[in-house]
DNA sequence: TTTATATGCATAAGAAAATTATGTATTTTT
DNA sequence: AAAAATACATAATTTTCTTATGCATATAAA
């Protein structure tokens, strides 16, 4: 994924966010999109991606639609209604996390 | 630590950062400081904290100084020279992570 | 033409970093 | 007297990743 361990826990949020924007995507497409968006900084490995997709599906946040293109199989994922709600709350969670961590590493000097 | 899994991987950075500011701290003090800084959002558990401190020490980033206060033992930790360097690079890593993740979840709309 | 790379899925073994549950001990508050 | 706070620690388990492997087709390069 990246040499940084900080990305741990963020993969499912990334997936949910991309599917909010693009409506339906398949696994390989997600890896390429993330690589592009991050200018190569973040490379999602298959070993991380596919289990994450399967879990989101099992949790009822994604639904699948198979499609054969150029004689190769693609599994298109899209958000369910529950997935849409989940995306909103997970993004809020991420914003809160970023604020919190910045409050620690970049604390406002006390005015006393 | 928090109900959010996003903090996974950030504990060692938090410790290094606090010790850059406060020079020397003991474990329990770190948990209280973090709770205060985050207004209760982040509560570091002992099961996470102590192994993290031990690892940072084993890696040569922290050194220990025992002190008995009110008949209770405290292990004060402070940064080594290597720990100081590590703090700088880990903070940079965190800033990069935040930029990258924001580039994904908050993408600039293309101007086309 | 054969070989490597890209596309596309998947899982298994192992590592890393947490959680949860204990355990010990002293001090302070209720 | 009992509960909560202070102060350390570790063990079992869970989660989420990495690394390695496997299968299959299409395209680019040697």
From TrEMBL, chains A, B:
UniProt protein name: PadR family transcriptional regulator
Source organism, top-level taxon: Bacteria
Domain (Transcription regulator PadR N-terminal): residue spans on this chain: 15-86
Pfam families: PadR (PF03551)
Organism in which the protein naturally occurs: Mesonia aestuariivivens
InterPro entries documented for this protein: Metal_resp_DNA-bind_regulator (IPR052509), Tscrpt_reg_PadR_N (IPR005149)
